[in-house]
Design brief:
By secondary structure, this protein is an alpha/beta fold. It contains 14 helices and 24 strands. Strand 16 and strand 17 form a beta hairpin. Helix 1 packs parallel to helix 7 and helix 11 packs parallel to helix 12. It binds ligand EPZ. Ligand EPZ binds next to helix 1, helix 5, helix 6 and helix 12.
């Protein structure tokens, strides 16, 4: 089992390019199914979750080939409309294929996505929206069987929660509906905008992405296109956390500054100086961070739940108490026990975590239990005195492209064994 060995206490320095967004790549890969054509995706990160999505595309009969961070996908040869259990279990966000396969083939079959490390991952909002669009869905024996009896019905869909996945599934289903679909209380994440940009470049007619109301005018046919995936704002936040936690100055290239609008203020409250010019963000951290006081996760443009764990790692040695409130997922504090093994002083009360800053962290053997928790342990290990071993890095590799290489290029003493 691979693990990372980190010798902390060293400053980072230099400049790195931030990888393409995992959470943009996955829905856009599902969207290629709607084109029956070839698309070229640039800046597509090399991740386990992207591999799992490509595996599904190939199972469906599509062609996909990677050339460094460019992925060429041809879905004209698609022959199947089902996703087998083992491929669904590999990644629960594969539910994003449901709308796209149904819209392309008139039917879809896949097993219910299991829960994941973050707790139950219900899909009620996805299913009720697709049913509203005229798709018959049978759930039995853990399988979902969908049939669009007579095409996709344009609908007015009000989401009770601005679910990212449900918004994406509705968009992917509605692009070929026989009329106009309106989504209210839609998710506003930048990944939704990136998906809409890709689909519009393929000939779709989507407006309002990034706002609460998205309007999708159905079209008959979509063609492929060339598209560059946006930078991964959560990887950017993770690298900022690593720099802040080690009192370093680093520059991130390729970030979209506006996507970090609720993240940069937290680092500034902690005493970091952040400047930006020409798509580059420079963070200059003080010797000792102040506590940013209160961090509550909210749907975009609020503070992103995916940044909660890495930023928590950064607050472990601040001068003061930081209160986290995790409003999006019900069990997203699995990294707390492991951070405490490194000498942090964190207490969890339900969805609240209290981080009482300590002077020092010290290396230990810790285990990652989910994707962003793994990133948090790496951030904390970089700021701890001595050696840390991080096991369970298969979680890290789901969302971070060669993270140890990126950190080595910034001067970190980190190696994968
Ligand atoms: C996406 O997951 C991201 N994944 C997650 O990133 C991210 O944390 C999340 O959005 C929130 O920003 C991808 O984009 C692949 P949601 P998703 O639907 O779509 C509840 C990472 O670390 N809900 O917005 O699953 C759900 O249980 C991953 O990169 C329902 O109740 O998120 C959760 O509590 C983790 N019913 C909340 O909404 C539904 O039908 C947010 O879920 C759907 C969701």
């Amino acid at each position: 089992m691979a693990k990372l060995v980190i010798t902390g206490g060293r400053k980072l320095s230099g400049e790195v390019k931030v990888q393409g967004s995992k959470n943009s790549s996955l829905p856009i890969l599902a969207a290629t199914i709607l084109c029956e054509d070839e698309s070229v995706l640039y800046n597509c990160p090399d991740l386990k979750d992207v591999d799992a999505t490509v595996k599904i595309l190939r199972y469906l009969g599509c062609k996909a080939s990677r050339h460094d961070t460019t992925l060429v996908v041809d879905t004209s040869t698609m022959t199947r409309s089902d996703i087998p259990h083992d491929l669904m279990r590999e990644m629960r966000s594969s539910i994003i294929f449901l709308g796209a396969i149904t819209a392309r083939c008139g039917k879809a079959k896949m097993s219910l996505p299991g829960g994941c490390e973050l707790g139950p991952r219900p899909i009620d909002l996805h299913l009720s929206a697709l049913r509203q669009m005229g798709i018959e869905i049978n759930e039995q024996h853990g399988e979902l069987e969908c049939v669009a009896v007579d095409g996709i019905k344009p609908s007015k869909i009000a989401l009770s929660f601005p679910s990212v996945g449900a918004t994406e599934n509705i968009m992917l289903t509605a692009v070929k509906a026989s009329g106009t679909t309106i989504i209210t209380n839609a998710a506003k994440e930048p990944e939704i905008v990136d998906l809409a940009d890709y689909l519009n470049a393929c000939g779709a007619k989507i407006s309002g992405a990034g706002e609460s109301t998205i309007i999708i005018e159905g079209v008959d046919k979509l063609h492929g296109c060339n598209h560059s995936i946006i930078a991964d704002r959560i990887v950017a936040a993770t690298l900022m956390s690593a720099a802040a936690a080690t009192s370093s100055k680093i520059t991130l290239d390729g970030v979209v500054y506006s996507h970090l609008s609720m993240i940069t203020p937290i680092f500034e409250q902690a005493g970091c100086e952040i400047t930006q010019k020409m798509g580059k963000l420079t963070l200059d951290a003080p010797y000792r961070l102040r506590s940013p006081k209160l961090i509550r996760t909210m749907p975009y443009p609020g503070f992103p739940t995916d940044a909660q764990a890495p930023v928590m790692a950064m607050t472990c040695k601040t001068n003061g108490l930081t209160v986290f409130v995790e409003n999006i997922f019900e069990s997203r504090y699995k990294h707390v026990d492991e951070l405490n093994r490194l000498g942090a002083n964190i207490k969890v009360e339900g969805k609240v975590a209290l981080v009482d800053g300590v002077r020092h962290l010290s290396g230990a053997s810790v285990r990652a239990l989910d994707l962003r928790g793994a990133a948090a342990l790496v951030v904390a290990a970089l700021s701890a005195n001595g050696h840390t071993q991080v096991c369970g890095i298969k979680y890290l590799e789901r969302g971070y492209d060669e993270f140890e290489v990126v950190l080595q290029s910034l001067g970190a003493d980190i190696k994968k064994i």
